[in-house]
From TrEMBL:
Organism, scientific name: Phallusia mammillata
Gene transcribed to yield this protein: Med14
Domain Mediator of RNA polymerase II transcription subunit 14 RM6: 822-881
Function: Component of the Mediator complex, a coactivator involved in the regulated transcription of nearly all RNA polymerase II-dependent genes. Mediator functions as a bridge to convey information from gene-specific regulatory proteins to the basal RNA polymerase II transcription machinery. Mediator is recruited to promoters by direct interactions with regulatory proteins and serves as a scaffold for the assembly of a functional preinitiation complex with RNA polymerase II and the general transcription factors.
Major location (coarse): nucleus
UniProt keyword list: Activator, Nucleus, Repeat, Transcription, Transcription regulation
Assembly mode: Component of the Mediator complex.
Family of this protein: Belongs to the Mediator complex subunit 14 family.
Positions with biased composition (Basic and acidic residues): 994-1004
Annotated Mediator of RNA polymerase II transcription subunit 14 RM2 domain residues: 344-419
GO cellular component: core mediator complex; mediator complex
UniProt-recorded name of the protein: Mediator of RNA polymerase II transcription subunit 14
Domain Mediator complex subunit MED14 N-terminal residue range list: 75-264
GO BP annotation list: regulation of transcription by RNA polymerase II
Annotated localization: Nucleus
Length: 1319
């Protein structure tokens, strides 16, 4: 910009010297010199410069003491000098920051180097001066003395001069003023001087401002003077905007300048005063919106113009000429800078500045390089000032002249008021591009009939584009666009979705020879049609291909189609293709018609003798086999490639909004629907199944293939095959689609011989449907074959129909007894469902599959009270039916076993943990394991085993399953004989069983655990020997079904308080549970210390009783003599030496009751018995304390008192909430110390819905000490439970020492007083 402004100033200087040489106007060089001095005031500064000497006015005397603070004459302070240097450097940097962005890179580098060199030299001088100044003390002192003497001499001279002036000039004319008598009187009388001279007021006090009204009148008067003056002045016509406002005239020339002038008086000779000057020339492309004229230059021009306004006959004309010439020169400079920038950035070598005369003319050429033509004549644009009328704006001349195809474009390209060279170039290129495209369109119109090409884009001020439609209806994406490259003037083609390599080839050929575009239009028209076909079917499961590499392409009729065809591959059927052949109209090339063919391919040659597949590599290539033309004008077609062409049926047509799209979609969808039937008919033909071919059922219904006859099923009797063939009324294949396509085979069958009871099976015919998925490849060997799948299902129908037909014939026989207890519920040729029972509340469904053969599925009806128990024996029933598929025999077995199995199914199967000595092992209460369809084995807690055999006479046979079936002297491993089993079963025994009753001794075989040494051995087969005897439990006991139901059904108890029902264990569980408890008791007695005395029991039931004595009590435990479902514990005191321990009879009653309610009950844990046995074996005073706790537990809330806050339970086994002992361990230990676990449950009001809190307290007592404490290990922790136990321990520490009932007193104190405190 600096170079631009300097050139403009040079042109302005020349213009002034040319037109105003008679005036004394400073030249531009002088102006630049002044500008440099103003811009850089310290460039030539010296330390002892004379212009820094202070000057004293002639009429002022310098005081004598001022020389103390002033520097010597001809010197400057060092700090002031450094400050000047810094300011100068900063000013230079600021100027460079404004000017460098608009310069080229090389110019910027040169300016930076020059600035660096100049500044470096300046600071080197300053550094030398600073170093010198540090050692010039004497010189400075002498200089100060010399300066002082000079100042004194100057003062003497000045004093002499002033005295001479006073003597010769001032005193001669001096006169005394009149004496101020009033002032003297004031001073003498009042002592004050109130009368000051008026000169003080006039010089110090400012005058009053004028009023707004006066100001308004003054401005109005000035405007009148200005208007009068303007009437007499000559105003250039280019100043079309002139406005007088507030005493100022605003002159505005758009795009050049804006000036404000006024008059300083009302005289006719008063010159115009220039107040403000603004230049409106802007360059927003190169100058980034910054001002083009520097403020210093504006000030200089301001002074220049002001000098021309003084003593001039035509001041306003001179003002316009100066500013107008400067603005035109500046515009040319701007355009030249824009051209340089365009050549360096966007346009490069494609434009060139041919000539530039500063302030006169700029010549620019474009379209200089054309890659497809060796010699090209460039086009030029000339921008210059008018030679005849200098006051006119810049002129634009085009070489050669632009064609007048569009007058509006020509007018816009003939001016450059916008001051944008690139816009002017684009407008010129638009005009010439439009002219070239018109010539191309005329050529197309000459060679193409009904040429549909048209222009687009010109109306929006953009470059013109010639659109050549390829297809009808006309769509912009199907048009070939031709536009002209603005840089080279070459044709540029573009087409939607076309590859760039293809467009480059078209561009090269049409620029070298325009007639080649005719050939390319035909090629692109075919490509566009193919692309349109792809868009039509893009949402269908198809793949479009331009060509296929057929091995027999030369010999197949498909070779006659030429290049204007494409293939549509149906994704689901990859061996079939739709061939689309395009035929264009000669008279109107954008119109076309399509012909469609269906092509069948294969990976093997159609004639095997033509090619030797063993030695030819083409064995893996694709071969074209069948070709069928599809005529959409007919209604139907049958794609049978073996029929002659004249007998083939053809496609139907449908009405279409877009005829071509609807036609192609119709062809594609119809082929997709028909091709599966082609493969189906081939497979039916290979399987030897006769059919009627693919037929259309009607509009919008579908296609069907009907089967004439079905084949006989191998492995089925001829009678059943004949019956099935006679039962089939119709068989048809249909293709259906929901989420995926699948085959639907419908069999219309006659009503079965015996109609089911369901209403939907009461019609005279029955429809059977099968569904099969369609594979991806119809012809691949590994694909799904619907014919094979159907034949497999047809075989299943035949194998089900045989047993079904036999069962129907058996039901018709008069001697059949199944009619009352069975019902044929459903038969649909795929399954048989039969209800059975008394009444029929259960059903069995029979199916058949090639993999699993016959399968039985059991269920229950809605009115059944429980699930079908035959699920327990389903496996054995299934295997038996596979061997002999006789439904009648199956139903007899189901009826005979239904009632006992339903009774057995009621037994609980809940798993319990801690029943045995293995604490982490869960044992089911009852486990029912089927052995055969009529034999099940029932185990109880993995200890006892019972075999149940179902008989056909309404009875069941029950025996002890622990005994071997072949040798009663051997028992099975892991099982224990059940003592008293025969005696227990005798209560439910069938009166018909007349076998003698065995005595009690033979009903109590020895158990493997308590058997005496020498009586128990084991062999390699897992059998153990016991003492041989005719054990009654090894023999079967016959029971009726109702007895088994009574034995296995749980009891029900009605609660009188809340009327809720609770269930009690069944009789069998109670019997086996009491037997388990007595066995646990015997194990505890055998493992006890020598303090226990075993006492034999006499009597008939002595073999089933256990009797022993402790230090002071005798215990007898035996089954209840009537029910055998409960253990009875009898306790009586015994004498120890000469002393008999005194016992309260109520305490013994509570001890017996506690055994019945807490020990001899489910879950029959061994460790619970062990804890109880530990308590009763304790010393009498400790046992009495335990009995008090038992009394409190059995009494419940009513025994705890009205103020009780907790209820308690003795923990016989360690609960899961205590981390100091494993779950299920004995919780009562008596050694040197006594450990006891007590569980406390919070008592809440009945209306409270919150859950009560539960606390497990491990008590520890030392018999030698009269206190009870908490186990120390339970107090170690920081959880909520530990905090509660710590609070309990604090409460126990308050108990006074007692001598007996330590535990009961401690528990009583806790349940009455303990309240959990918040942590």
């Amino acid at each position: 910009m600096a170079h631009m402004m300097q050139n403009s100033m040079v042109q302005l200087n020349q213009h002034q010297q040319m037109h105003f040489s008679d005036q004394n106007i400073p030249s531009v060089n002088q102006m630049q010199h002044q500008q440099q001095q103003q811009t850089h005031p310290m460039q030539n500064m010296q330390v002892n410069s004379n212009f820094l000497q202070p000057s004293v006015p002639q009429n002022q005397v310098m005081p004598a003491n001022t020389n103390q603070n002033l520097p010597p004459p001809g010197t400057i302070p060092l700090n002031t000098l450094i400050e000047f240097v810094v300011h100068k450097t900063y000013h230079d940097i600021t100027v460079m920051a404004d000017l460098l962005p608009s310069k080229t890179d090389m110019e910027r580098k040169i300016a930076i180097v020059q600035f660096t060199t100049r500044t470096r030299q300046l600071f080197i001088r300053l550094l030398s001066l600073v170093k010198w100044a540090s050692s010039v003390g004497k010189v400075v002192k002498c200089s100060e003395i010399s300066s002082f003497l000079d100042r004194q001499a100057m003062l003497f001279v000045d004093t002499a001069d002033k005295m001479h002036i006073l003597a010769n000039q001032v005193v001669v004319q001096a006169r005394l003023p009149n004496f101020s008598v009033p002032a003297a009187v004031d001073v003498l009388t009042t002592g004050t001087y109130p009368r000051l001279p008026n000169c003080i007021r006039d010089r110090i006090i400012p005058p009053d401002p004028i009023l707004p009204k006066e100001k308004k009148a003054t401005l109005k008067r000035i405007e009148q003077i200005i208007l009068f003056r303007l009437v007499t002045e000559i105003i250039p016509p280019q100043i079309n905007e002139l406005k007088v406002e507030k005493g100022v005239v605003h002159l505005h020339v758009p795009g050049e300048f804006k000036a404000s002038i006024t008059l300083m008086g009302d005289g006719a000779d008063v010159p115009w005063r220039l107040l403000k000057l603004d230049f409106l020339v802007e360059d927003r492309e190169v100058g980034n919106g910054k001002a083009l004229v520097h403020s210093i230059q504006v000030n200089y021009i301001h002074e220049l113009v002001q000098s021309r306004l003084v003593a001039n006959d035509k001041p306003l004309v001179d003002l316009f000429n100066i500013l107008h010439f400067f603005c035109l020169s500046l515009k040319l400079e701007v355009l030249q800078a824009q051209a340089d920038r365009l050549m360096k950035l966007r346009w490069g070598k494609f434009i060139q500045i041919d000539e530039y005369q500063a302030g006169q003319k700029l010549t620019l050429s474009y379209w200089r390089v054309n890659p497809y033509k060796k010699q090209t004549k460039p086009f030029s644009i000339v921008i210059r000032q008018s030679a005849t009328k200098p006051s006119n704006p810049l002129q634009v001349i085009h070489i050669p002249k632009v064609p007048l195809d569009d007058v509006s474009l020509v007018e816009s390209a003939s001016t450059i008021n916008h001051l944008s060279l690139e816009l002017l170039i684009n407008q010129s290129i638009c005009i010439r591009s439009y002219h070239i495209l018109i010539q191309l369109k005329e050529m197309l119109h000459k060679h193409i009939r009904n040429d549909p090409s048209y222009f687009a884009g010109k109306s929006n001020g953009q470059s013109s584009v010639l659109l050549i439609p390829l297809l009808e209806p006309y769509k912009e994406k199907d048009c070939l666009s031709i536009h002209v490259d603005p840089q080279t003037g070459a044709f540029i083609p573009s087409l939607d979705k076309a590859e760039q390599s293809l467009l480059d080839k078209i561009e090269k050929e049409i620029n070298e020879n325009q007639l080649s575009i005719l050939t390319w239009i035909s090629t692109l028209r075919c490509m566009a049609l193919k692309d349109r076909c792809r868009n039509f079917v893009q949402h269908l499961p198809v793949v479009c291909l331009d060509r296929l590499p057929f091995a027999n392409n030369q010999t197949h009729p498909i070779s006659e189609f030429g290049e204007n065809h494409m293939y549509i591959k149906i994704a689901r059927y990859p061996m079939y293709y739709i061939v689309v052949v395009m035929v264009f109209d000669v008279n109107r090339p954008t119109r076309f018609t399509n012909k469609y063919y269906l092509l069948q391919t294969s990976t093997t040659p159609p004639v095997k003798s033509e090619i030797n597949l063993e030695n030819d590599s083409r064995s893996s290539e694709l071969f074209a086999v069948g070709l069928v033309q599809l005529d959409t004008k007919l209604t139907d077609f049958n794609m049978d490639f073996e029929q002659p062409p004249n007998k083939r049926k053809k496609l139907t047509s449908c009405e279409a909004l877009d005829e071509n799209a609807r036609e192609l979609l119709h062809i594609t969808s119809l082929c997709s629907a028909r091709i599966p039937f082609v493969s189906l008919m081939e497979k039916l033909r290979d399987a030897g199944i006769e059919h009627q071919g693919a037929q259309d059922e009607g509009p919008d219904v579908g296609i069907i293939c009907k089967i004439v006859t079905l084949p006989n099923v191998k492995g089925v009797s001829s009678e059943v095959n004949a019956l099935l063939q006679d039962a089939v009324l119709q068989c048809s294949f249909r293709l259906q689609e929901r989420l995926n396509k699948f085959w639907s085979v419908e069999l219309l069958m006659k009503a079965p011989p015996l109609k089911p009871v369901t209403p939907r099976h009461q019609s005279e015919s029955m429809q059977v449907t099968f569904h099969y998925e369609i594979g991806l490849n119809l012809n691949s060997p590994g694909g799904s074959n619907p014919v094979e799948s159907f034949l497999a299902d047809w075989g299943a129908v035949a194998r089900l129909y045989g047993p079904y037909y036999l069962f129907c014939e058996q039901l018709k026989h008069p001697a059949c007894t199944l009619r009352n207890d069975t019902q044929l519920y459903a038969f649909n040729y795929k399954s048989i469902t039969i209800k059975y029972g008394k009444p029929p509340t259960f059903f069995v469904t029979i199916t058949w599959s090639p993999e699993k053969k016959y399968q039985l599925h059991f269920g229950r009806c809605d009115n059944a009270a429980s699930s079908n128990a035959h699920c327990l024996t389903r496996h054995y029933l299934n295997e038996t039916f596979k061997i002999n598929p006789d439904i009648s025999k199956l139903m007899h077995v189901l009826l005979d076993t239904s009632a006992p199995l339903q009774a057995i199914a009621q037994l609980p199967s809940t798993p319990l943990i801690g029943v045995s000595t293995k604490l982490n092992v869960a044992d089911q209460v009852f486990s029912v394991i089927a052995q055969t369809p009529t034999h099940v084995r029932i185990t109880f807690l993995s200890t006892y085993c019972i075999d149940v055999y179902f008989r056909s006479d309404g009875l069941v046979a029950i025996r002890d399953g622990s005994f071997s079936q072949f040798d009663y002297a051997k028992i099975k491993h892991h099982f224990v004989p059940i003592p008293g089993l025969t005696t227990f079963l005798a209560r439910f025994k069938d009166p018909k069983d007349v076998r003698h009753r065995s005595d009690m001794e033979k009903d109590n075989p020895p158990s493997p655990a308590p058997a005496p040494p020498g009586t128990l051995t084991s062999d390699t087969y897992g059998l153990q020997d016991i003492k041989y005897s005719a054990w009654s439990g090894a023999s079967c006991t016959l029971l009726p079904h109702n007895a088994l139901e009574m034995m296995c059904s749980p009891g029900m108890i009605q609660n009188r308080r809340n009327h809720n029902q609770s269930f009690t264990p069944c009789a069998l569980e109670q019997f086996l549970g009491t037997t388990m408890v007595r066995r646990n008791l015997d194990r505890c007695i055998k493992g006890a210390s020598s303090d226990i005395t075993i006492i034999p029991v006499d009597g008939a039931d002595g073999s089933l009783a256990s009797s022993f004595a402790t230090r002071s009590l005798q215990f007898i435990c035996k089954p209840h003599p009537q029910t055998f479902q409960q253990l009875v514990l009898k306790i009586q005191p015994v004498q120890i030496g000469q002393q008999i321990e005194s016992w309260n009879p109520d305490d013994l009653v509570y001890l017996e009751e506690y055994f019945n309610m807490r020990v001899s009950c489910s879950p029959y844990r061994f460790n619970a018995m062990k804890s109880f046995f530990t308590m009763i074996c304790a010393p009498a005073r400790i046992l009495k304390d335990f009995i008090q706790l038992m009394r409190m537990e059995l009494s419940g809330a009513r025994g705890s008192g009205p103020n009780a806050k907790w209820s308690m339970n003795i923990g016989l086994t360690s609960p899961p909430r205590v981390s100091i002992a494993p779950f299920g361990m004995p919780s009562v230990l008596i050694k040197d110390k006594i450990l006891l676990f007590v569980q406390l449950t919070q008592i809440l009001p009945p209306t409270t819905q919150a859950s009560p809190q539960i606390i497990v307290i491990p008590f520890l007592h030392e018999p030698q000490k009269p206190t009870v404490n908490i186990l120390p290990q339970a107090l170690q922790g920081n959880t909520a439970i530990h905090h509660v136990l710590q609070q309990v321990d604090e409460l126990l520490n308050r108990i006074p020492d007692v001598r007996e009932n330590w535990f009961s007193n401690a528990v009583r104190l806790i349940i009455d007083n303990f309240v959990i405190q918040a942590s």
